[in-house]
Design brief:
98 residues, alpha+beta, NE1680-like fold, four-stranded antiparallel β-sheet, two-stranded antiparallel sheet, 3 helices, 26% helix
Length: 98
């Protein structure tokens, strides 16, 4: 089974996976509006024991079968305060002293 991968023209590090190239019929219009014009990246074969980016192929195959698409969002970044606290060897959240 092949899978088509598209990157967003509006959102960095955001990818849309579809079971067929140029078939966005199962993708909600609101999502396509936020995603922008899909930019084709590649067709990839889906093997059971292969990871595709940060997702495994079972998770991807299930989403393609159930919803007809899979949306990969960029990983969330920690706030600058959390990064600073970690560099100082502190916990992510300050202790509450109330």
């Amino acid at each position: 089974m092949l899978c088509a991968v598209y990157k967003s023209s509006k959102k960095a590090d955001t990818y849309l996976y579809t079971p067929k190239k140029a078939d966005f019929s199962d993708v909600p219009q609101a999502l396509l509006d936020m995603f922008g014009k899909p930019i084709f990246v590649m067709l990839i074969p889906m093997h059971k024991d292969r990871k595709i980016g940060p997702i495994d192929t079972k998770q991807l195959a299930d989403a393609l079968k159930e919803k007809g698409f899979y949306l990969q969002l960029p990983p969330t970044e920690d706030s600058l305060l959390v990064k600073h606290r970690r560099q100082k060897g502190l916990s992510d959240q300050p202790d509450k002293k109330f």
